[in-house]
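go over this chain:
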Amino acid sequence: MHLSTLISIGLASIIFDTPHSHGHQQLLRGGDKLSRNESEVGSFQILPLDIPLDRVFDVQWNPPGYPTLDTSFLLPPFNDQWTTRDGHYTFAQKDQDGVMSLVRKKTDGTVCSVFEKIDFRAISDEVLMMEGDTPDLVGTGFGTLIKGKSIPAGDEGGTWNTTEVDTEEIAEKWLMKNFHQKGSSATSINAPIEFCPWSDLFPEDTPIVEGGEESLTVVNGEEVQTAIEAIDPSFHV
């Protein structure tokens, strides 16, 4: 395949226009927030949480998740499955409207966005259930489970007695109880937070130019080959 053909169909379509067979949202929505490479402009408070990677999972579940939550087929969070992960998860809260985002803080200190908006659904002493980038109704987003410190980490599913999360403060208290970084406080970011797949595949020094929300114009074909092979080793430009 020639580079010009790759550019015409858009790199984002290669990476993201695949069925989501693991969660309840079957296809990523082209042109939607999920296909953007940065969050909206604004300032954010990064909560002082250190949530290990092996405690946050994309899951099959039973919306709305209460009074009983059943989970199975646990995988890394959907928008963070494309590359080797490092660091830990936490949340960013937008100063303008208070919207909460799931983010990953990497070992080099940079922060990338997994979900631009999350909605907390169900809670127990052991687990916190949420949905990422929910378009409208409960059960239509990316079901994501956080396992608290009172149960083992790892990708084993389970069933828990839960209650509805009717205020965000309840979820925040649970998160602080389980994962607060002692001696730390929230930190500010006064810039867009880059989407994790782009952040991992295209470091800041990679020569790319944005060409719209659903396509990229790439300066160096070798960079394209490397990025795509990280997802599909059989693909050749």
About this structure: The first strand starts at residue 44 and ends at 46. DSSP finds five helices and 15 strands in the chain.
